[in-house]
Amino acid sequence: MSKSLKQAAQHPEANPWYRAVYVGDEPVGFVMLSWKPPAGPYTGRHFIWRLLIDKHHQGRGIGRETLTQVAALVREDGATELLTSYDPGDGEPWPFYQKFGFEPTGEIDDGEIVLRIVFPAQ
């Protein structure tokens, strides 16, 4: 998490938005978005920069619930899609995102595969 906060401080142009993830009173994760940055490759779009759930709490639906809440927030903000990316390899999060409905965009960003979920019209 400290790496993410340092990156957020180093890149204010990415318009970082971040929150801790709790189960009850216990912090179990962290989520950070680039919230409609004014410039760059994702100008005006919502991009999940980090979604981290402590390994002791994975597999319990916490990541899915966090992603569900984030998706609802960005939809309320008028978004028609939500983006993220991942570094392919052992332990990659692609199956998690795929189950949620994300699909590859065909883009590669700094070696990471870019994904998106498109929200149905409201």
UniProtKB/TrEMBL annotation:
So which domain of life are we looking at? Bacteria
Q: State the Pfam families in the record.
A: Acetyltransf_1
Query: Signal peptide span per the entry?
Result: none
According to the entry, every stretch annotated as the N-acetyltransferase domain falls at 1-120
- The protein's name: GNAT family N-acetyltransferase
Q: Which organism is it from?
A: Streptomyces albidocamelliae
